[in-house]
Fold this sequence. Notes:
globular; six-stranded antiparallel beta sheet; mainly beta
Amino acid sequence: MFNTTSFVGIDFGSGPNHHLLYFKRGNDHEAWLSIEGPWHVHTADAVFDEALQLQRLIDLRRERVHQVRLGDGHPHLELTFESGHTLFVNGFHEQYESWQAGDARPLGGDQYLLVAMPQGELAVFVEEEA
């Protein structure tokens, strides 16, 4: 869903961990990622200041996703960009969904909808062919 897409926009949510990211590939493929839990952009330094993290995220605008990885034990999501920077989205929370992703706007899925469920489970909804 995210491979070879470019990060093209962000809507800021009500708190420091709530953001909606938009991705696009060509003229016909859109995807979104709603983050509702902790996240950060990996870099060489270990500073995790909120303003700095948002700036790092914004700096990734228009970069292509080079690699996508889901964690083994929990659905931690890692999007690695062509620059080598990685956006890490936590996939575990005791009571709440950590993130959702789909391939249609607004916040839906034409073919895919993925949800990092409470307790670290991943729900995958796939359109069935008729």
